[in-house]
Amino acid sequence: MKSYVTSYNGLFARRAADAPVVERIEIPIIQRDFAQGRDSYAVARIRANFLDVLHDALTTVSPISLDFVYGDVESGTLRPLDGQQRLTTLFLLHWYLAWRADRLDQEQGWKRFEYATRPSARRFCACLVESKPPSDAKLRAWFEDQHWFLHTWQHDPSIQSMLVMIEAIHARFADADCAAAWERLVNSKEPAISFHLLPIEQMGLSEDLYIKMNSRGKPLTPFENFKARFEQVLEHSCPDRVEEFAQKVDGAWADLLWPFRGSDDVVDDEFLRYFQFVTDVCVWHDGEQPSGDVETLAERVYGPSNKKAATHLDFLIRSFDTWVDVNTDTVFSETFALTPARLDSDDTSKVVLFGMQGSTVNLFAECCRGQERRSWPRTLILYAVLLHRLHNTGAFPRRLRMLRNLIEASSNELRAERMPALLADVRRLIVEGAIEGVSSFNQAQVAEEQVKVEFLSKAPALERHLFHLEDHPLLHGCLAAFEFDASVFERRARAFHDLFATPSLLPVLTGALLAAGDYSQRINHRFLQLGSGSEMSLWREKILTGSSRARLADMRGALGRLLDAVAEREADVRSTLKSFTTEWLESQEHANGLDWRWYFVRYPEMRAGRSGIYASPTSVLGYSVCMLDKTAMSSYYRDPYLSAIRQQSGVAETAVEGAVAQHWGGGPWFTGYETEARWMRLRSSGAGMQCVQDGLQLRAPEAPTHAEAFSRVCETHGLGPDLRLKIPQVESGGRQLDTRDRVELGAALLRDLVDAGL
User: Could you give phi then psi for residue 64, rounded to 5 degrees?
Assistant: First the structure.
């Protein structure tokens, strides 16, 4: 088969004696619709690039060749097998320049172009060559307003694509000298745009031929477009490695990614996702932020405008090569685990990945499947593994464990704008093995990691116990609640696992730990935090971690005392906690006053708030407190003293209510600010009870019919005209503390009020 160099218009003027006679062009019915005018970002980019090339050829002295156009010429009709898109665009370009140059009336061969795919597309092409819009027309609107333009054409993909292309040509050539461009376009001797026509005779137009020539009309996939564009980029920046990339992307790397393919049995998306990850890393290395689509980003990172293009490309290639012929499942399963090792295990080498239950530890696979990019921790850990493989780093499990701990403590620091600094710190830790100088992660945790290194250097035998603690789901690597005292560390570590073995221990644990010491954490001037008696996760988020060692000093002291008691126990943990609490309460019976802590330890219902958050109008816990189930005062909450009084009285919950009329268990319930008065109201009479600093304040019933019974109860309990049950108090540490149990006294008073019919 022999090819002939020609132009689009030159097809219709036989230049060589043996060249086929072409009288018209017909896009065969088996071909696809015109695709270069599709309204999508990927196609728009291809369209713009193609028009740039055509514009340069027509407005400069640099002609171009559009490679080969394959086709079957029969009875003067060229039916292209490959080249439909280019020929259609050239047809539209001829019409546009002829219109702008006022050459539409000339009889030339370019007009003899039609589609056999749809009668509507054929009709549109015939009408187009006869159309001469006014010079100031908005082309698409003008065409759609013509009498021959059928309404149904709004749904014809080829016609719609041709309209889009015409508008794109108009936008690109709006300022061009279209008369000069027209002359260069139809120049018979030196056309600005040419191609090689390769006639394929006597082969027919079978479907098999289209398959063999890859011309069935299916649009290129985004991945195929990407590869072609990316190789063009590398031709300008790293030409010596283009062939290497091309061979690997369709060879070894495709084999590497095959196990992670989706249901479509291709690895295009998987490749692009890992490519995106590596390229993002390169951008962060440059101190910048990734933006734009993957093609734009690739040109920015690996193109000639980036001075580090060769370095980045080398990193990219090595980042793929390192996984070739490697069982990634094995690599990651030998490094990571989803659950902690058994406490009796001496092997703590695997790093537990928190928050990935039900997932896989194979971070490479997750990246290829598109899950890694939504998670900064996974991105950083995958980068650490990649660094280790590329640099063969030493002591990797230990360094990786430290990184895991830093990441878990740095939820506030893990942000897009900090990724350049975070990656630099990951490299410092993994490659250089230096914790000193790490500045972008949580600095309290950085300091703790340094303390751990020093501690284990002096007590290496405790490493297993320390790692088991780090892997505990309530600690996530932070041990700020533990004293690094080699003489007690092991037994306290074992006791901690027993203490938090089951959520069923939490109601007893909250009282025992408070008996061990005031471990409350101040949230702000209004709120304080205690451990939740029902939500295990809140212990990690609010109590055991999240603060520096200095701020957790009181917590560390209280926890240490309780852990010692648990470690030395003779009974089960629950019984030990109850005994510990009882002994402390007994020791306080003759102490100088009963403060809030005594009440909270004595009465479990005062620790029943799910959130463990308490609010006080005086900014310290005392006798006026709100117990929150949630985290804000806008939600319903309880008064712990009133709840305890109601509970201890034995009065039915339905006999009283708070500011909230609805009924939930453990009430009464209230709303409003902590500075507002909280009255527990008796449903029958409307009488009320409020907890105040020096005792319990009553409010008389609303109806006179209850006055006599109310007065009788008040007289029995020694209440005067002010209706206040004053609790005997003593000054201690600058505060007035009860010397008698106000909950017990209040319970008796409430019981008598209800029994009196109030």
Answer: -130, 160
Q: In what order do the strands lie in the sheet with 724-726?
A: 656-657, 680-682, 688-692, 695-699, 724-726
**pLDDT tens per residue, range 655-704:** 999 888 666 777 899 999 999 999 999 999 999 999 999 999 999 998 88
Q: Return the domain boundaries, the chain.
A: 4-212, 222-324, 334-441, 596-755
| Cβ-count burial 13-34 (b if 16+ within 10 Å, e if not) | eeeeeebbebebbbbbebbbbb
The CA distance from 525 to 221, in Å, is 59
Residue position matching structure tokens 């935090």: 529
> What number of other Cβ atoms are within 10 A of residue 126's Cβ?
14
Minimal CA–CA distance to 599: which of 536, 631, 645?
645
Euclidean distance between CA atoms 679 and 682, whole angstroms: 9
Question: What's phi and psi for 542, nearest 5 deg?
Answer: -120, -25
Position 271 confidence tier, pLDDT thresholds 50, 70, 90: very high
CA 403/CA 318 separation, integer angstroms: 23
Rounded Cα–Cα distance for residues 63 and 195 (Å): 11
Mean pLDDT of 162-183: 93
Q: From residue 697, how far is each of 28, 77, 687, 690, 758 by CA, in Å?
A: 95, 104, 11, 5, 16
364 pLDDT more than 90 = yes
Could you tell me if 133 and 8 are in contact, meaning their C-beta atoms sit under 8 angstroms apart? no
pTM: 0.73
Q: How many angstroms from the chain centroid is the CA of residue 674? A: 37
User: pLDDT band at 563, cuts 50/70/90?
Assistant: very high
Q: Which two tokens stand for residue 544?
A: 């055991």
